[in-house]
Amino acid sequence: VPESMMNDLVHYPAPFILGVPTDEKKSAEILSSLPDDVTLVDLDVGRVMLASELVHDDSSVEPGAAAGALRSQVLFLAESLGGIVGGAVDDSWAFDSPLQIIPHDNNNKVDDFLAVRNICHNFILELLSGVHSCCLWIEEKCIGECTIENEPAIVFDEERFVSIKSLRGEGLNLPLFQDKLADGSSSEFCLGIDKFDLIINAFLRTQSLSSYISHGEKESMMFW
């Protein structure tokens, strides 16, 4: 992303994936002061720095084991997404040495940008799929003028959400996407519970998911 937008985007109150160059001074300053709910994946050295709010080890396991397992899942996910991106754009993207330059015209650059943008869009769409179907909108009927006490409440069924992710990972689900542009190709982004259970559980604890749910429309949920 452009330097001018980095600082604002890392505080965006919803799930996001940002690509940030590490060889620029301003990038280094921002990466050294990330919000507590942002995880940093360094693809150059294969390192994952978990968001501080995610590093809560279970006392029933060896100290550090839970955080280490989550770190491994995040790195595996990053490598998998990197493989998808590498297969979708020009071969020069995959070169390790910047000295290996292949002529690259502007049309190809635009095509590569659109390909990467679509991959990121489809991944986030898949991550959020099923969220609203697990929400129950509850509101009290107002008698006279509504007050703050009559504001609706939203109950989120975590077990149902995990079950949906499990079915999607196994390819046993009914289509959840209502967007007419969505197709079956998004199945490659399904996060199976068998491989990404810790990531899913961590995602359920994030403020960004809570914000996404609270801004949902009543018509997209079950309501009572």
Features:
mainly alpha; three-stranded mixed beta sheet; two-stranded antiparallel ribbon; 7 helices; 42% helix
Order of helices and strands: HHEEHHEEHHHE
Q: Order of strands side by side in the largest beta sheet? A: 4-3-5
Helix count, DSSP H or I runs of 4 or more residues? 7
Q: Nearest-angstrom radius of gyration?
A: 20 Å
The largest sheet, given as strand count, sense and whether it forms a barrel, is:
3 strands, mixed
Name the structural class.
mainly alpha
Low-confidence stretches: 94-102, 176-185
Secondary structure tally: strands? 5
Instruction: Give the averaged pLDDT, no decimals.
Output: 76
The 3D shape can be described as globular
> What's the end-to-end separation, in Å?
42 Å
Give the helix proportion (percent range): 40-55%
Strand content: 5-15%
Oligomerization state of this entry? single chain
Tell me what the structure shows:
Helix 3 packs antiparallel against helix 4, helix 3 packs across helix 6 and helix 5 runs antiparallel to helix 6. The chain is 42% helix and 7% strand. The protein contains seven helices and five strands. The chain is globular. It has a three-stranded mixed β-sheet with strand order 4-3-5, with no helix packed on it.
What are the SSEs and their pairings?
Blueprint: H1 3-9, H2 25-31, E1 40-42, E2 47-49, H3 65-88, H4 106-128, E3 135-138, E4 153-156, H5 158-170, H6 193-204, H7 207-214, E5 222-223
Helix pairs in contact: 3-4, 3-6, 5-6
